């Protein structure tokens, strides 16, 4: 019986849908973070793990992942741009984040669609409103001085991806499983 439980646990994968940050933006964010937060502020997220989560799926089976991948493949939406121009601290969760003051409609629609599909597939979704952000530091439970300005990174989004969270030698790594393109060209206000 124990062997069966262990096999079941290993067949579950911790997954989420996210926007990938280009390596150049990841490196710019790392430099900005180093210039604005002291080392004792929290545990820095490695550049390669920086992303903007759209929908957290939790630990799911291969069959459920396949269904969600098929649903994601049917999404038809125009690309959009995200400007990371806001920064904040959630002391309760110990997260310091970089986000956007005015999330574009395309981002909100994509996240809502993916979260709805996940919920219908049995993946519990938070009741908190979607707050698009990139996690910069974890374990930031003490008060921290938040910079007045960010470096206003602009991300042109032309695809979204499914990631798996894997523990490798005691460290979390995010592995891209699959990506889906968004329609070329950003939506203009008249297209809304």
From TrEMBL:
Enzyme class, spelled out: hydrolase
What SUPFAM superfamilies does UniProt report for this protein, alphabetically? LigT-like (SSF55144)
* Superkingdom per UniProt: Bacteria
Q: Where is this motif: HXTX 1?
A: 51-54
| Gene3D superfamilies on file | Cyclic phosphodiesterase (3.90.1140.10)
A Pfam family of the record is 2_5_RNA_ligase2
**Is Metal-binding given among the entry's keywords?**
no
Q: Which InterPro entries match?
A: Cyclic_Pdiesterase, RNA_CPDase
Going by the UniProt record, its keywords in alphabetical order are: Hydrolase
Query: In which residues does the motif HXTX 2 occur?
Result: 133-136
- EC number(s) recorded for this UniProt protein: 3.1.4.58
Its recorded reaction(s) are: a 3'-end 2',3'-cyclophospho-ribonucleotide-RNA + H2O = a 3'-end 2'-phospho-ribonucleotide-RNA + H(+)
Active site feature: 51 (proton donor), 133 (proton acceptor)
Functional note: Hydrolyzes RNA 2',3'-cyclic phosphodiester to an RNA 2'-phosphomonoester.
By sequence similarity, the record places it as follows: Belongs to the 2H phosphoesterase superfamily. ThpR family.
In its UniProt entry, what is this protein called?
RNA 2',3'-cyclic phosphodiesterase
């Amino acid at each position: 019986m124990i062997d069966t439980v262990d096999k079941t646990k290993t067949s579950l994968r911790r997954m989420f849908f996210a926007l990938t940050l280009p390596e150049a933006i990841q490196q710019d964010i790392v430099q900005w973070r180093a210039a604005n937060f002291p080392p004792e502020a929290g545990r820095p997220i490695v550049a390669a793990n920086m992303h903007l989560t759209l929908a957290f799926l939790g630990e799911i089976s291969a069959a459920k992942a396949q269904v969600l991948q098929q649903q994601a493949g049917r999404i038809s939406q125009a690309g959009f741009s995200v400007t990371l121009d806001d920064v904040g601290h959630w002391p309760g969760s110990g997260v310091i984040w970089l986000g956007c003051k005015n999330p574009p409609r395309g981002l909100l629609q994509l996240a809502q669609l993916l979260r709805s599909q996940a919920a219908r597939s049995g993946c519990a979704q938070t009741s908190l409103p979607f707050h698009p952000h990139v996690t910069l530091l974890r374990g930031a439970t003490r008060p921290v001085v938040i910079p007045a300005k960010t470096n206003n990174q602009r991300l042109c989004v032309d695809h979204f991806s499914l990631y798996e969270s894997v523990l490798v030698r005691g460290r979390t790594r995010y592995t891209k499983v699959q990506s889906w393109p968004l329609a070329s060209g950003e939506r203009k206000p008249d297209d809304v």
